[in-house]
Amino acid sequence: MTESTGLLASTRALAEEYDLALMDLDGVCYRGAEPVEHADEGVASARDLGMRMLFVTNNANRPPQTVADQLSSLGIPTEPEEVMTSSQAAAAVLAQDLPAGALVLAVGGAGLRSALLEAGLRVTDTAADDPVAVAQGFAPEVGWAELTEAAYAIAAGARYVATNLDSTLPTERGFAVGNGSLVAAVVNATGVTPLSAGKPEAEIFHQAVARAGGTRPLAVGDRLNTDLAGARAAGIPGLHVLTGVSDARSVVLAEPHERPSFLAVDLRGLAEPHPAPHRDPQGWWRCGAAAARVAGSEPHLELRVGDRTLDLDSDAEPVTVSLDAWRCLTAAAWDAADGGTVLTPERVPVLEVVSPR
Length: 357
Prior knowledge:
This is HAD superfamily hydrolase (TIGR01450 family). The chain is α/β, with parallel strands linked by helices. The protein has three domains: 2-58 and 200-271, 3-Layer(aba) Sandwich (Rossmann fold), CATH 3.40.50.1000; 87-196, HAD superfamily/HAD-like (Rossmann fold, 3-Layer(aba) Sandwich); 278-354, no CATH class.
C-alpha cells in the first residue's frame, strides 16, 4: 500500500487490506427507513472477503438492537453487538469520570437512556433532582421542555456532554434538524459548550476499535465533517462514498483534516482495489485513462481523458466523470492546495461520478 497526496492506493480489495470496517449508517447503509443502493451487496461482499463490521453511528435515538433489526430487515444481517451508537460513547465518557450510580439528566430517546443505565449511571428527566451531568442526544420528541430542563441543570453546574453535534440528519425526505441544532439552543441559553462524544471526535473511533478488537480498521462514511474528519483525528484511513451528504465536488475542495483516504461511489467499493493517482513530469495527476491538473493564472481544473482536454472552470453545468477521473481531480486539487494554490468553490463544477460497473 502506497500513499500519494493524501489518497492511498491498495492493489487488493479494501476488505482484504483491512480487517474491520467502522461503518456509518445514515447516508451509507440507509436513508431514514429506505436502504441505500447496493449497501447490502457491498457489505456482503466485504464480509465474504473476511472483513468484520462494526456499525458506528452518531444517531443516538435508538438502542443497538433496534438498529440491528433495521439493518437485518434491509438485507444486512446484523447483531446488536455489531452496533455502536454515540449514546454509548457519551455514556462511556461520563462513566470514566463519574462515580457509579451518579445521576444524569438524559435529554434524548430510549437509546440514550439505555446506554446510560448500562454504563452504571442513574437517569432523570428533571433538573429538580440535581443531576451531576446532562447528556443530550437526538430524539424526535425533544422540544422546549426537555431543552429547558437541560439549561436549568447546566446553569446549576451540571457537566454537559452531547452525543454528537451534527446539524442535520439525513432522511428519506431530505435533511432534517439534527442534534447539533438542538444543542445550539442550549448553548445559546447557557453559554456552555458541551463535550461531544460522537464523530468527528476520535474517542468514538477508539472505543469502537477497542470493542471490536480490530488491528487494521477502516472508517467508512458519507460526511466529510464527521465521518472522515473523525477518521483523520483517530489516525484511521477513511473511505468516502457518494450516497449521502458530501458530494464529489466537496471532496475535491476538502480541507486537509477532512480528506478521505479512498474514494468510491457506494459500498461496493469495499470489494475493489483502489489505485491512487501519481504525478507525471508535466504536472498531470494520472490514474487509469484519466489525468487532471490545476493550471492557469487564475487557478482552475483541467481534465484529460484520452486526447480530449476539458477546462472545467468554463463549464457551469454538472460534469460527468469516471471514478478514476474523480481521483485525479481530487489529487490535483489537494496537491495544489498543499502548495498554496487554493481553488475557490466557484472554479470547481458539480461532479457526477459514474460507477465503473
